[in-house]
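Hi F.,

I've been meaning to write this up properly since the lab meeting, where we talked about keeping a consistent format for the predictions we share between groups. The idea is simple: the sequence comes first, exactly as it goes in, then the structure tokens exactly as they come out, then a line or two of notes. No screenshots and no reformatting. I'm using this chain as the first example so we have something concrete to point to.
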Amino acid sequence: MKAALFVLASVGLCSTAASAYPTMIRHGYTQCVSCHTDPSGGTLLTEYGRAQSQLLLSSRWGRAEDAEASAASKFLFGVLKTPDALTLGGWVREGYIWNTVDGKLVDNRELHMRTSVAAEVRVGSVRAAAELGYASAGAAHLATVTREQDSGNLVSREHWIGLAFADSTGLVRAGRINVPFGLRNIEHTSFVRSATQTDINEDQQGGIAIALTRESWWLSRVRSATMCFSRRFSSSSPFSLRASLTSMPPYLLRQR
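Output, unedited:
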């Protein structure tokens, strides 16, 4: 035990500084709201966000560096045209487990991870968004709309209505909302996600959120109505506050 503590102490004393930054910062995007309908990022992409996802994150497969986004970046690959006020999106994620031990099959089953559609509507300064999907039995319990015990359920991970202000750099909204911190990927098994209850598969909270975005900083506060939900939130703080000051590494600034 003493040897283990000595090793850990040595590693801590000899370690050097480490830094990290969101992927899009190196492309000059310091705020999530540039591409997402949610000011804190994740979930539904705007039309502009879809285009940037294709241009900056997807494999280019021989396309020229200055090529414009194609119709494939649009909802349903551009087959269904939507009005400017409406943003649509969806997710389908399936998996399959095939596990053998000593040549014997011990686990063989399909994994239904996510199937849902989402929409956001903008009319003047009014914003409204919702997501509706399907979850297999026992999954995404906190987000379920129906309450079937032995079969799948309809789920709504987020639904809210809000009002934009300050030239659309601010947004106040009420409903079921992602907490304004934590990882925005779907890996709900990550310890950092389960320990902080920021799993975007089901750990959204109901309440009122205020977000204000500027070029170099972002502020969000959520007042959660924890009394309306499962006992899982009974010990959670009803307040959530995040303030973020963004500074780009010098070598990234030189590249811009």
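Notes:
The helical segments are 2-14, 47-57, 191-196, 250-255.
The first strand starts at residue 86 and ends at 101.

If this format works for you, I'll send the rest the same way.

G.
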